[in-house]
Design brief:
The protein has helices spanning 12-20, 43-51, 58-77; strands at 6-9, 24-29, 35-40. It is an alpha+beta fold.
Length: 86
């Protein structure tokens, strides 16, 4: 089995697009209290695709972006992101 590429992303729109494209996005809180996502799969290929302004269902993208932001706010609300360390 081929090992998957893992990239840490901290930009909500990029994470939302990766999630929309079915990549695994695992949230964590870094040492500075910032919420980031470890994204697994063909991440660089998907991010390159994003740079070409792809046509995506807008409502689906906005729902994913809302979900990502909700995760960020939830983890920031926890004291030191307890229990969600990478």
């Amino acid at each position: 089995m081929e090992e998957q590429e893992k990239v840490v992303i901290d930009k909500a729109p990029q994470v939302a697009y990766c999630s929309l494209r079915k990549l695994h996005c695992k949230p964590f809180v870094d040492n500075f209290g910032r919420v980031k996502f470890e994204v697994s799969g063909p991440v660089m290929e998907i991010l390159s695709e994003l740079q070409n302004n792809p046509k995506v269902p807008l409502l689906d993208f906005l729902n994913r972006l809302d979900a990502v932001r909700s995760i960020i706010f939830t983890l920031k609300g926890r004291k030191n992101g307890e229990g969600i360390q990478r």
